[in-house]
Amino acid sequence: MKSGLLLYSIFLWLFLQPLATLARGSGAFMQAITVKGTVRGSDGTPIPGVTIQVKGTSTGTVSQPDGTYSINVPDANATLQFSYIGYTQQEIPLAGRTTLDVVMSSSTSELEQVVVIGYGTRRKRDVTGAVGNVRGEEIAKQPVNTATQGVQGKLAGVQIISSGQPGSQPQVRVRGTGSMLAGAEPLYVVDGILTNDIRNINTADIVSMDVLKDASASAIYGVRAANGVIIITTKRGQAGKMEVSYNMNIGWRQAANVVKMANRQQYVDYLAVAGPQVTIPDFGADSDWYDAVLRKGLQQVHNISLSGGSEKFLYYFNAGYLTDKGIVKDNQYDRFTIRSNNEWNIVEDKLKFVAQLSYMHNKTDYVQLDDIYNNTYRAAPVIPITRNGKYGNTSAFQNVGNPILTLDKIFDEMNENRLQGTTYLEYSPWKWLRLRSSMGVNQGFQNRRQFNDKYLNDENTFLVAGGNQQRPESQLTMVKEEGTEWLWENTATYQQRFDKHDLTVLAGYTAQKYSGNYLQGLRRNVPNSPDLWYLIAGDPNTSTNTADGDKYARTSILARVNYSYDDKYLLSASFRNDASSRFPSDNRNGYFPAFGLGWVISQEDFMKDQQFFTFLKLRGSWGRIGNDNIASNLYILTANSGLLYFFNGVPTLGTNLADIKDRNLKWETTQEYDFGLEFSMLDSKLTGEVNYYNKETRDALVTVRIPGLLGDPDNEYTTNAGSFVNRGWEFTLGWKDKISDDFDYTIGGNLTLNDNEVTGLNQGQPLFRGGVGQQGNITKTDNGQPIGSFFVLDADGVFQNQGEIDAYVDKNGNKIQPNAQPGDLRYRDVNGDGVINLDDRVYAGSYQPKFYYGINAGLNYKNIDFSVDFYGNAGNKIYNGKKAFRYDVTDNIEASYADKRWRPDRPSSTDPRTLPGGIPASDYFIESGNFFRLNNITIGYTLPKALLERIKFERLRVYLTSQNLFTVKKFSGFSPELVAGQAKRDGFLSLQNSTSPLEAGIELNPYPTTKTFAIGLNVTF
């Protein structure tokens, strides 16, 4: 880190000294005119922050808060370009004019708007790859904690799976699952900072979110772009007087759906069949455990921002506070953020310095979800929750912990601080050349303290003594974790337009380094006083310590060419060479080329007389990208020393290999080709886009079984031995119309069809994952199937009587299920050997949907605005793991099952009479994952201008909003949205994002999806 900063300082000094003189003298022989005007929206409202630039030069300015601007132009016949993210870019020849007023219109379909493409921007009409865009105002209007939650259902090809857990980050899949073991999350680029975690980004700070979906668009980021790239641009100040804004919303969250469990009578009736030997205690209780554990949680968000500046200095400052109390008792998330984006124009049109800095502090009160949800689901309704200050003893009756006692006896708090920032110096020695050097830092610190209070299984704690839920000794665990990542980027951009040719060339070099440390300490018998919660207060004889760390580095060389002829024929080509320390030296370098072609058909002469298409573009692209999101030591052999071994009867200390590693590990690479058609018609009221993509991942990391005699602990090692493909279609359609000055409306939708298939795996060795208690692994990833496919027995009905059991025989007349009773599930003997075992398992779908979609609509009538968003998916399956994971006969059951299960007086062909502990994994537990959700509905009212002028406000809007108001679904569990897998450590700054697609779609202990109701206020002074 120190060497990088030293190099950066030397570079800046060498860069500034010779160039400052050139900057002062450059352009002295040009005669300039001054052009002034006002930039307004289609509704007449002034637009601040619009970039006004003399075409073909670096001369430019931005509009002030009242929309006015002034710019010195070197040529009276020059052309001015007006651009602002989310609006249609305009090019207007001056023709000698010194006053020019401009009306900008919001981009109807994103075909004409300016989008961020990585190390630059372009009009979407000039882009040859697949790029999606969502404006920040569309994200900020929703009561969400993380920006990606606000994008759900708005972009084709982007699947977002959210959890209701406060402070969590949604799972994002861009054009399907991109990896099995190397991480499938996209790369986030926030003002030039590359990261995997954007929980520290305040949605109120966002101007736009651009998603680079295909390989040609994202290949400029090479090593980390295999799963797509999401670029977030934050706000900047505008020249003019200070503008102060305050935005807030306050409301509550509650579980969108709660699984209803059996009541006392249903439970007693079930045990009479499933466990007639069980003696049920008579406390007179009929407990609703979910009602005791869950709650309505308050949520509130407050943001205040200041922005303004002059032609020499622009500033934007925002402070935000968010609190989310969660829907589980004692769970809470509080976040405080500060952002300061400043720009200094040191030498006009020549030299500028930009600093974009942010700080976040959050405090999270965790709950032990695995333990609490498992016990809440299993706890019997006949046991009281609490009574007279004592807890019902569920463990004495059924070997299940009382979840309320667990909540009350554990204090688990984490404090996290994050510093993130980019500073860059940009110099333009000539109008056609821009040089930039930037330094970005992403630094995080975590401190977590967990105190587990002591209690005994006696009558001081419980209504009755006994059971195994106790903690004779208190326990304190302290965790400290820190990580620092810096990124140094140097780029040169050549941009020139001559005659009908428009050429932009980018070249650059980047260096990146990460280092992190993890330290955990534990002691027992610590006093129950927060003032004494220090390890030193515990028993030193019980002390245990754990330490870990990570380091890795990357260097890259990149280049890109964008060319257009007559705004009609488009070409884009890029190349990136990455070197990553996460691979052996012989395989350290990866090479990632890409190119794209585009044809704006509507610009052809033969299209000029037609009135149907306003815009029509055909494009195609190909690219190769990589993935190094693996453990830094995955190829490094490590050893365990000091092991006792008897050699000829003599004890000797020896050493063995901790794990067998592949010393020839190499990059996962993804090759993708993409074809797209973009159009607007009917006077640009109707717009749309159609894409086809084929994305193939080669040399995918998988685990391969190896012989036990080699001494590997788990008899497997990780290597490049897999390949799979995602193929799909994307459709986007939108309609926008303005009926009158008082009324306009929009309606749009998107649809994505994706097919995931494993094409080459492990020389025939499948991957089994997704453990569900006594049932073992229930997913199998193998050739010809989607990643993480369910692989279980085929339950084809319920035995109605003994005659059906006797008639179910093999070819030799032997009973296939001789121990079955009427009311038990019947399993299909797939291989015909007369025995039901693991050899009879079949594929039964996967969690990956066949298609997903979004529907969006909005209208504005006078001062009233209204918007509504829907989202859904279809064709996927979910395994009801919590229902399948049976510990004991006394475990509670779901009320719906109690009402439908087979009984002699009420036969059923679908639900068995009991769910015993040894019930095998089968498609009985597999349910449809289809759902259709009202994602957000918002109605707002903006005060009229006349009233605002009287109260000295620029703008005041109040609104009501609801998130996840209702969901139409078939799944009987909490939510069809399930974040896959378990978190793993992959560097502190990406700790939250590592999940496994191999075990997606298994509902065991999920945090329920929440619905939110809130009222909000937007004020600008």
Tell me about the largest β-sheet.
22 strands, antiparallel, barrel
Low-confidence stretches: 1-30, 981-987, 990-994
Number of helices: 12
Which structural class do the helices and strands define? mainly beta
Report the span from N to C terminus: 43 Å
Annotation, overall tally of beta strands:
50
Average pLDDT confidence is: 89
Beta content: over 45%
Could you estimate the helical fraction of the residues in percent? Answer: under 10%
Which outline best applies?
globular
Spatial extent as radius of gyration: 31 Å
Topology, element by element:
Blueprint: H1 2-25, E1 33-41, E2 51-54, E3 60-62, E4 68-73, E5 79-83, E6 90-93, E7 102-104, E8 114-116, E9 121-123, E10 131-135, H2 136-140, E11 158-161, E12 171-174, E13 187-190, E14 193-195, E15 206-212, H3 215-218, E16 229-234, E17 240-255, H4 264-274, H5 289-293, E18 297-309, E19 313-324, E20 332-347, E21 351-365, H6 369-378, E22 386-387, E23 390-391, H7 394-398, H8 403-408, E24 410-430, E25 433-452, E26 475-498, E27 501-524, E28 539-565, E29 569-580, E30 589-600, E31 613-627, E32 639-647, E33 650-657, E34 668-681, E35 686-705, E36 716-740, E37 743-761, E38 767-771, E39 777-781, E40 789-792, E41 795-798, H9 802-807, E42 825-827, E43 842-843, E44 851-861, E45 864-874, E46 877-879, H10 881-884, H11 895-900, E47 926-928, E48 931-942, H12 945-951, E49 955-969, E50 1010-1020
Parallel strand pairs: 1-7, 13-16
Antiparallel strand pairs: 1-4, 2-3, 2-5, 5-6, 8-9, 10-15, 11-12, 13-14, 15-16, 17-18, 17-50, 18-19, 19-20, 20-21, 21-24, 22-23, 24-25, 25-26, 26-27, 27-28, 28-29, 29-30, 30-31, 31-34, 32-33, 34-35, 35-36, 36-37, 37-44, 38-39, 39-40, 40-43, 41-42, 44-45, 45-48, 46-47, 48-49, 49-50
